[in-house]
C-alpha cells in the first residue's frame, strides 16, 4: 500500500502539469505565471534607473502590476506582452482602474515574437532557457544603453552589469544588463 501511495505522490506533479498542458489556454504557454514579490519588483525597477519619458517593456507581464508601478513611480511609458487572454484582461482592467491607460498598455502575444523597438528597459521574469531564446531578438531590437533586468534567471551569453541578491525569507537574484554600444 505504501508503494501505491508513494507512486501516486510522485506522479501527482506530472499529472497536474500534463493536465495544464492539455488545457488550450496553457498549451502554448512559455512560462508559468508567477508574480514577482513587491520588494523584488521595486528593487528591479530601481536598478533599471528609469527616467521620466523612457519606455519599459515587461515581457510576460502577467497581471500588469509592474507596468502600473513603473508608470506611477517613474513617469515612464510601459508596454506589457502576455500570452494568456485571461491575464491580458486582468492587466487591462488593473491599468484602467489605476487610471494610467494613457501611459500603459498590454499586447496579447508571444514574447518570442515581440519586437521591443524603442524600449529603454526590458523587465523579465522568465526561465533561463526562454531568456536564451529571447537574447537574439533583444540584441537586434534594443538600442545601445538599453537596460534588461531579469528576476532570478540570467541571460546566457551576456555578462551582467550587476547581480544583486535580495534579503528576506526567500532569496531572489536580480540581474541587470546594459546593451553595449554598436561596434564600428
Question: Main traits of this protein?
Answer:
19% strand; 184 residues; 2 domains; disordered N terminus; 7 strands; alpha/beta; Rossmann fold; 7-stranded mixed β-sheet; 38% helix
Description:
There is one protein chain. By secondary structure, the protein is of the alpha/beta class. It folds into two domains: 1-28, no CATH class; 31-178, Vaccinia Virus protein VP39 (Rossmann fold), CATH 3.40.50.150. 38% of the residues lie in helices and 19% in strands. The protein has helices spanning 2-22, 38-47, 65-74, 85-98, 128-141, and strands at 55-59, 77-82, 104-108, 121-124, 147-151, 162-165, 173-178. It has a seven-stranded mixed sheet, with helices on one face. Strand 4, helix 5 (128-141) and strand 5 form a beta-alpha-beta unit. The longest helix is centred in the N-terminal third of the chain and has 21 residues, at 2-22. It is globular, with a radius of gyration of 18 Å. The protein starts with a helix and ends in a 6-residue tail after the last strand. The model is unreliable at 1-28 (pLDDT under 50).
What is this structure, in a nutshell?
The chain has five helices and seven strands, in the order H-H-E-H-E-H-E-E-H-E-E-E. With 184 residues, the protein is α/β, with parallel strands linked by helices.
**Mean model confidence by pLDDT:** 85
The secondary structure category is: alpha/beta
Instruction: Determine the strand fraction and express it as a percent band.
Output: 15-25%
CATH-defined fold name of the largest domain: Rossmann fold
Oligomer designation: single chain
The helix/strand series, from N terminus to C terminus, equals HHEHEHEEHEEE
What is the makeup of the main sheet? 7 strands, mixed
Helix content: 25-40%
Stretches where pLDDT is under 50 for at least 5 consecutive residues are 1-28
Amino acid at each position: 500500500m505504501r508503494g501505491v501511495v508513494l507512486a501516486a505522490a510522485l506522479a501527482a506533479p506530472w499529472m497536474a502539469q500534463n493536465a495544464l498542458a492539455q488545457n488550450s489556454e496553457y498549451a502554448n504557454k512559455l512560462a508559468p505565471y508567477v508574480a514577482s514579490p513587491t520588494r523584488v519588483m521595486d528593487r528591479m525597477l530601481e536598478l533599471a534607473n528609469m527616467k521620466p519619458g523612457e519606455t519599459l517593456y515587461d515581457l510576460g507581464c502577467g497581471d500588469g502590476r509592474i507596468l502600473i508601478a513603473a508608470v506611477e513611480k517613474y513617469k515612464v511609458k510601459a508596454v506589457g506582452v502576455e500570452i494568456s487572454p485571461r491575464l491580458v484582461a486582468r492587466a487591462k482592467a488593473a491599468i484602467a482602474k489605476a487610471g494610467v491607460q494613457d501611459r500603459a498598455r498590454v499586447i496579447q502575444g508571444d514574447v518570442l515574437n515581440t519586437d521591443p523597438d524603442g524600449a529603454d528597459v526590458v523587465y523579465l521574469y522568465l526561465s533561463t532557457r526562454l531568456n536564451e531564446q529571447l537574447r537574439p531578438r533583444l540584441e537586434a531590437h534594443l538600442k545601445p544603453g538599453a537596460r534588461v533586468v531579469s528576476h532570478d534567471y540570467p541571460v546566457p551569453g551576456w555578462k551582467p552589469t550587476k547581480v544583486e541578491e535580495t534579503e528576506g525569507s526567500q532569496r531572489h537574484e536580480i540581474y541587470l544588463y546594459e546593451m553595449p554600444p554598436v561596434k564600428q
